[in-house]
Amino acid sequence: MTGAEAKLIGHEDAWASWRAAMQGQRMHHAWLLAGRRGLGKAGFALSAAAELVAQAGVPQPDPLSHPDIILLERPPATSDDEKKREDGKDFSRKRNISVDQIRGMQRRLTTRPTLGLRRAIIIDAADDLEKSAVNALLKSLEEPPAGSFFLLVAHRPGGLLPTVRSRCRQLRFHGLTDGQLANLLARREPDIKPELRQAAVEAAQGSPGMALAFIDDELAPIARELRDIMRHGDADFTRRAALAAAIGTRPDRERLLASVRLARDICAENARSAPPRNQARLIDTHARLVRLGAEIPYANFDPALTVVEIGGLLAEAAPPKG
Questions:
Q1: Are 23 and 198 in contact (CB under 8 A)?
Q2: Positive or negative, the Cα torsion across 239, 241, 245, 250?
Q3: If DSSP codes are grouped into helix, strand and coil, which group holds residue 170?
Q4: Under 8 Å between Cβ of 152 and 123
Q5: 3-class SS of residue 79
Q6: pTM
Q7: From CA 11, how far away is CA 77, in angstroms rounded?
Q8: Of 76-85, 139-148, 200-209, 229-238, which gets the smallest average pLDDT?
Q9: DSSP letter (8 states) at residue 37
C-alpha cells in the first residue's frame, strides 16, 4: 500500500454521496471537502474530478496534467523554489493563493472544456485564499459557467466566509478509529516497532496522513518530550532542553511546523479530558500555538527561540502542582 492509497482509506461515505450526485438530474456546481489535515481530501478531489470530466470513448490523461482539471494551490515562493519544483525537489510555497491565480482560472472558464463537456476546478486549500481572491472566487460560485464544477478543500471550514460555505454542498471527511489506523500502519510499515506504531496512532488522532508523516519524519522523540512537558511542566528548563535535542540543532520550517502541530494536538487532547477549571488555560494555549504555526512558514524566525516558545507554551498549560 502506498502513502497515497493509505490517505484514501475511509472515504466510502464521501464517494457514495459524490457518485449519487453525479447520477442525479442536476449536479451541484460547488463542493466543500471539509475535514482535518491529512485525511486525503486533495487526493479525493483529484480522483473525483477525473471521474467528473471523463468523456466516454475519449482517452483521459493523468488528473494532474488533464486540460479540463484546474488545480489552484499556493505557488512556489521564489524563482529558485520554482526550479526546485521542476526538478522534483522539496520547495517552499507562498503564503496564499492569490487573486491573480483566481482571475487566471476565470479567464480559462470563458473557453470550452477541451476533451468533454465538463471542467473541474480544485482549490487546495480554500483556507489559503487571500481576501481579494475569496471575493473574486465568489463571483464564479454565484454565476458558474456552464459545465464548470468547483471542489474546495478546507481543513478549517469554519474559517471560510459564510457566503462561500452557503454556495457549496459539503462533503465531510472523518478520521479513522485508532484500530483502523493501527491496522493501516501495520500494513504500510510492517517493520516498525509496536511502540512507535502506537505513538503514531496517538499523535495522528485519526489522520492517516499525519500518522505516516509521524513515522517518516521520525517525530516520536518530539512527541514524547512534548507530552512530558504537558504532564509535568518545566520549571528548570531541562525538559525544554530535551525537546530542543529531539527537534534537532538546525530544524527546518517543516520540522518546526510538525512540532507545533503535535503540541497543538496534545493540548487539544488534554483540553477534552481536563476539569473545567483547567480547560480555559488549555484552550488559550491551543489558540496561541495555532497563531505560532501560522507565522512559522512566512516570518523571519530563530529556530532555537521557536523551540523554546513551543515548550514554554505547553509548560504554562501544564496542570498546577499540588
A1: no
A2: positive
A3: strand
A4: yes
A5: helix
A6: 0.77
A7: 32
A8: 200-209
A9: T
CATH number of the domain located at residue range(s) 3-172 in this protein: 3.40.50.300
Helix/strand/coil for 231: helix
Contacts 24+ apart (CB under 8 A), 274-279: 274/319, 278/319
Under 8 Å between Cβ of 304 and 283:
no
Q: For the chain, give the number of residues.
A: 322
C-alpha 226/C-alpha 210 separation (Å) is 17
Q: Phi-psi category of 304—alpha, beta or left, where left has phi over 0 and alpha has psi -120 to 50?
A: alpha
Query: Which among 105-119, 208-222, 282-296 has the top mean pLDDT?
Result: 105-119
C-alpha cell, 227: 507530552
* 266: three-class secondary structure by DSSP: helix
Question: How many Å apart are CA 133 and CA 138, to the nearest integer?
Answer: 9
Non-local (6+) Cβ contacts of 8 within 8 A are 40, 43, 44, 47
Name the H helices within 205-252. 208-216, 220-232, 238-247
49 vs 19, 119, 124, CA distance in Å? 11, 8, 13
What is the per-residue pLDDT across 116-161, written as a single tens digit (0 to 9) for each? 999 999 999 999 999 999 999 999 999 999 999 999 999 989 889 9
Closest CA to 149 of 15, 313, 21: 21
Q: Which helix (H) or strand (E) holds 270?
A: helix 253-273
Strands (E) located in the chain: 30-34, 69-73, 119-124, 148-154, 169-172
Please state the separation of Cα 209 from the chain's center in Å. 9
